[in-house]
Write a structure and sequence with these properties.
Elements: E1 4-10, E2 15-23, E3 29-38, H1 40-44, H2 51-75, E4 85-91, H3 95-111, E5 116-120, H4 121-127, E6 139-144, E7 149-156, E8 159-165, H5 171-181, H6 188-196, H7 221-234, H8 238-270, E9 277-281, H9 288-301, E10 304-306, H10 310-313, H11 318-333
Parallel strand pairs: 1-4, 4-5, 6-9, 9-10
Antiparallel strand pairs: 1-2, 2-3, 6-7, 7-8
The structure holds 5'-O-[(R)-(carboxyoxy)(hydroxy)phosphoryl]adenosine and zinc ion.
The site of zinc ion (ZN) has 5 residues, from α4.
Length: 346
């Protein structure tokens, strides 16, 4: 049978996560469990993720989370005996956290004689949409999170072409850093969006990055500097602050739109798909302004806008299980398969 069941583990940043994902014979993907422990309150006081605290927290929680994820899957009739493989994030990420998850996965796989698949964290994000949507290859992906800001052409499992990336901060990082300058809480993205609701987005003129560059790269450092300067010199009242938040949000959204527009043109030149998917993943996809503008852009360029549910947009283990599963399915079908493949990518 082609049915496959994989335990996934994610621990590369500030979320410890374990999941069981099954792909049925007919290709239907089912998330049997996806449990997450967010460390956000542990890092909030520092205004960002502290690697040492993150690594220790992963150690403290990972076994309980695994027990919970396995229990939830068992409640749906799938036990540890039904697992075909274990997948864990092997990088990139904070090394202390990666090592916790990967070592835990190695031990688990060894104890149950299961193959272990190391998964590239970004590949997890790239494929996460397939947990819930039957998106066909190739598709265009905009990955916008706290750690990443990339445009990728996703041609197949393990076949990705990077069209653009950030030359400094990630989009979420820009939201977080500017929010911090303005005295908003951590994580800054949601806080800044809330403030922006009552602000005037046309109040402050902010620089447009990389204007005239004919690639799909991003840059947010100029915006960050300009916002900090305005915050210091012109923000006196709550209304000023709301106006700056709205202006910043509009500037970030505009850059995402401009670069995605270019990527869409390139993608259409390279592929002859009728109506390709434009998938937006990562925490910033939660931003309503960003979402609305990217949806309009996709319509304009003949793409279908697809955003995974938020639970699979932000860091989670279901996407790691699925990426591992899709690789394992290919490996298992190969003639030289020896049942114990370990891939290391970062
Ligand atoms: O994907 P994610 O959970 O973690 C990473 O892998 O980085 O993304 C978190 C990022 C943070 O930078 C956060 O500020 C941003 O996504 N974010 C938002 C919103 N919600 C989360 N940014 C803007 N508006 C939001 N509503
Ligand atoms: Zn991530």
């Amino acid at each position: 049978a082609n049915s496959l069941c994989v335990l996934g583990i994610e621990s590369s940043c500030d979320e410890t996560a374990v999941s069981v994902v099954r792909r049925a014979d007919d290709g239907t993907v089912e998330v049997l469990s996806s449990v997450i422990h967010s460390q956000v309150v542990q890092h909030a006081a520092y205004g960002g993720v502290v690697p040492e605290i993150a690594a220790r927290s992963h150690v403290e929680t990972i076994d309980d989370l695994a027990r919970l994820a396995l229990q939830q899957a068992a409640d749906k009739g799938v036990t540890a005996d039904d697992l075909d493989a274990v997948a864990a994030t092997a990088g990139p990420g904070l090394i202390g956290g990666v090592m916790v998850g990967l070592s835990f996965a190695k031990g688990f796989a060894l104890s149950r004689s299961l193959p272990l698949i190391g998964v590239n964290h970004l590949e997890g994000h790239a494929l996460s949409v397939r947990l819930t949507h039957d998106v066909k290859f190739p598709f265009l992906l905009l990955l916008v999170s706290g750690g990443h800001c990339q445009l990728l052409s996703v041609k197949g499992v393990g076949d990705y072409e990077r069209l653009g990336t950030t030359i400094d901060d990630a989009a979420g990082e820009a939201f977080d850093k500017i929010a911090k300058t303005l005295g908003l809480g951590y994580p800054g993205g949601p806080a800044l969006e809330r403030e922006a609701k009552t602000g005037d987005a046309t109040r402050f003129a902010l620089p447009r990055a990389l204007l005239g560059r004919k690639d799909c790269d991003f840059s947010f450092s100029g915006l960050k500097t300009a916002a900090a300067k305005i915050a210091m010199e012109q923000v006196k009242t709550p209304q000023d602050r709301a106006d700056l938040c709205a202006s910043v949000q509009a500037a970030i959204a505009r850059q995402l739109v401009e670069r995605s527009a270019r990527a869409m043109v390139d993608f259409k030149e390279a592929n002859t798909v009728e109506k390709p998917a434009f998938v937006v993943a990562g925490g910033v996809a939660a931003n309503q302004t960003v979402r609305r503008e990217l949806t309009a852009l996709a319509d304009k360029h003949g793409f279908e806008f697809v955003a995974p549910p938020l639970a699979y947009c932000t860091d989670n283990a279901a996407m790691i299980a699925l990426a591992g599963l899709e690789h394992f399915a290919e490996k298992r079908a190969a003639p030289d398969f020896d049942g114990d493949e370990f891939r290391r990518e970062s």
